[in-house]
Design goal:
mainly alpha; 2% strand; 160 residues
C-alpha cells in the first residue's frame, strides 16, 4: 500500500509546488496521477524503470540537471535546497527515492521542461497525455486513467 493521495497532496505535492512558485490545481492533480501511474502512490519505490514515486530514471535525472537546470542557476539552487545536504553529493539519484519533496520537484521540472499546456484539473485524458509524453512514451492513456481511478479517486475523497 502506498501513501494516501490526500496526504501526498497536502504534505508533499502542494508545499513543493508552492516552494517552486508553480502551484495550481492541475499541477497537483497531474503529479498525483503520475505518482499513481508510476508507483501506485509509492507501493514500489524502485525498479529497473527508475527511482521513487515518479520512477525517474537516473539518465533523465542527470539530463534534467545538465540540460535544463544548469541553464537556470536560480532555479537549480532552489531545487538543490530541497535535497539532503550530504546524501545528495554521494548519491544524488537516491534522493529520488528517499526525499519525496525533491522527487516531486524533479518530476514537475521534467513536465515543465516539455512546456505543455496544462489541461483542466478534471481532464484525466489531458493529464494522461502529459504523463505519456513526459514519463511513459509507450504507455497507454488507459494506464493513467486506471491508476487514477484505483489509487487517487477513492483515496482523494477528502479534499487535498
Amino acid at each position: 500500500m502506498g501513501i494516501a493521495a490526500s496526504e501526498l497532496c497536502r504534505y508533499v505535492i502542494r508545499p513543493t509546488l508552492i516552494y517552486l512558485g508553480r502551484h495550481c490545481a492541475t499541477a497537483e492533480s497531474l503529479l498525483l496521477g503520475i505518482a499513481a501511474s508510476q508507483s501506485a502512490l509509492g507501493s514500489a519505490l524502485h525498479d529497473r524503470r527508475g527511482h521513487g514515486l515518479y520512477r525517474i530514471a537516473e539518465q533523465r535525472h542527470q539530463m534534467l540537471w545538465d540540460d535544463y537546470l544548469a541553464l537556470d542557476p536560480e532555479r537549480a539552487s532552489l531545487v538543490r535546497g530541497l535535497a539532503s545536504q550530504h546524501a545528495f553529493l554521494s548519491g544524488p539519484h537516491l534522493e529520488l527515492t528517499v526525499n519525496l519533496r525533491y522527487a516531486t520537484a524533479i518530476a514537475w521540472l521534467l513536465i515543465e521542461e516539455q512546456a505543455p499546456t496544462l489541461p483542466d484539473p478534471n481532464d484525466l485524458l489531458g493529464m494522461a497525455r502529459i504523463w505519456r509524453q513526459t514519463f511513459q512514451p509507450q504507455g497507454r492513456l488507459r494506464d493513467f486513467t486506471d491508476a487514477w481511478q484505483t489509487c487517487v479517486s477513492p483515496l482523494n475523497q477528502v479534499a487535498c
